[in-house]
Design brief:
Blueprint (H helix, E strand, L loop, with lengths): L2 H22 L6 H22 L10 H9 L9 H8 L14 H21 L4
Helix pairs in contact: 1-2, 1-5, 2-3, 2-5, 4-5
């Protein structure tokens, strides 16, 4: 595997593990962090796909825009749209005062990230 692709995957996996650990925390779980790291996991997996296909990786965080780039590679990425809409709500919103993620939002974000993760890993031939 291309080292740059492997690095994107490692970063995505770090976000996925962090989100899962916070979601399972018994004392003072940080649901904002679950949502943020779930979004970041999906973003980095999309960038791994772009890297694997030797495409330009824009410095953006919008998952729908990243999906549009991946659709040019493989139209089946469209099936992730609903999960991306869930995750897109958390790219910035929970990082600042005024909004606090609830447990159900964190669970939804984590599940959406898991769907994206499994789909992309399958596309990249990762078990």
């Amino acid at each position: 595997m291309n080292p740059a692709v492997a690095e994107w995957i490692a970063k995505a996996e770090g976000d996925f593990v962090t989100a899962g650990r916070e979601l399972r925390a018994r004392k003072a779980p940080n649901y904002d962090a679950v949502c943020f790291h779930s979004q970041q996991c999906a973003e980095k997996y999309f960038k791994a796909v772009l890297q694997a296909n030797e495409k330009h990786i824009p410095k953006i965080h919008n998952l729908i825009e990243l999906m549009a780039l991946c659709l040019q590679i493989d139209p089946s990425f469209e099936m992730l749209r609903a999960d991306l809409i869930v995750l897109e709500r958390f790219s910035v919103r929970v990082r600042y005062p005024g909004v606090i993620a609830e447990k159900d939002e964190a669970q939804s974000a984590y599940i959406a990230a898991k769907v994206v993760r499994e789909f992309v890993r399958q596309k990249l031939g990762i078990k």
